[in-house]
Amino acid sequence: MPLGTAIHNIEIRLGKGGQLARAAGAVAKLIAKEGKSATLRLTSWEVRFISKNCSARVGQVGWGEPEKLG
Where is the Large ribosomal subunit protein uL2 C-terminal domain (predicted)? Predict the structure, then answer.
């Protein structure tokens, strides 16, 4: 994943499922990759270091209200 990518639903520990940036409008940015870890900047400007083997989804969590399809 390239640096600067906006991501959400990020695993903190491998195999535990997404735990960071899950609320509406939440997003984190991948700001560095070094060795076996990646550095993320969260919406709150908190910086987190996680394993590069953890998974995340690309993009930002949507805002809006649910709408009917029909």
Answer: 1-66
